[in-house]
Amino acid sequence: MPPRTTLAMVQTGDRTLEPRELPIPAIGDDDALLRVEACGICGSDYEQYAGVLRTPVPVIPGHEPVGVIEAIGDGAARRWDVNVGDRVAVETMLPCRNCRICLRGDYHLCRQRRIYSYIPLDVAPGLWGAYAEYMYLAPTSIVHKIDADLPPALAVIFNPLGAGFRWAVEIPRTQPGETVVILGPGQRGLASVVACREVGAGTVIVTGLEADRRKLDLAREFGADHTIDVENEDARQRIRELTGGRGADVVLDVSSYATAPVAESLDYAAPGGRVVLAGVKGFQPIPDFVSDKIVLKEIRLLGAIGVTYSGYDAAIRLIESGRVPLEKMHTHEFDLRDAERAIRTLAREIPGEESIHSCLIPGLAG
Q1: What does the domain layout of the chain look like in residue ranges?
Q2: Which CATH architecture has domain 5-156+325-361?
Q3: Model pLDDT for residues 175-211, shown as the tens digit of each residue
Q4: Which residues contact 254 (CB under 8 A, 6 or more apart)?
């Protein structure tokens, strides 16, 4: 039997997280309870923490969980093909599964979709986000079985790696031999390098800042052919040289907040190329964005929000294979009570700390 209460880190305002003991709800026929083993931390966690996203409060953040099914109803067990004791990775979004958008397969665009970490405590049963020891799994959840023998900190990389497969491969339909430029060497940029290598991309180029030297070096370890420090090199000229003047078949922007890469991506793309925009910019306008470049080069401009089943599935299969040393991407583990420090570390607010991939592990501190 699960305990009656669980520790959860609750956001009560901008830049404010506090530990609370919350009741664990009863589980019915169509839902489940997850014992959280690890929760990954991404850039949107910082945006939520800082108040940029303006999510309701109080709320439990965290939308990248891996854990073990602690309790489950018979209907949910049949629907998800999992049972008590199975380890699962949980998708971020809760679609309605009934609208036209869901039924055509685009459930991540469902207008009624909810994201676990943005559902406030006053919405029953309250235990939504993954910054907790236990987490409620709603009937419309989408879960994936994942090898129970993997270290939790490695298993939880399923989320950024899934983004790499969807954003760098599925959306632009990257083909073997094509040239891909990835703008931003964070965890999702590095995951995109891995995904592109898995499908046989010909040349992979990654751009970053001088402060990203460690990440750029890791991009090469994961298979990038070239890296560019945009603060000390002319990226436009360098990409022109590396592609024989043609440009890239695919340009993927996964940089956060910086708007310059959006405008510059049009210069990096080859005629007929595809540009995928996945890095959010806080609704800032894009200076120097010249739409005529899209017209004259017939560039296809594609947006990317979230990850879908196939991307997560490809990521999990690759993690389970052990063929790629993905553990090199993982840099930090924090106890659940240290969630605030974990978020600030990812955002480079902690002097001397540089995080690539990090996660919370309940009970880490003993």
Answers
A1: 5-156+325-361, 163-303
A2: Alpha-Beta Complex (3.90)
A3: 999 999 999 999 999 999 999 999 999 999 999 999 9
A4: 163, 167, 182, 183, 184, 186, 188, 189, 192, 278, 279
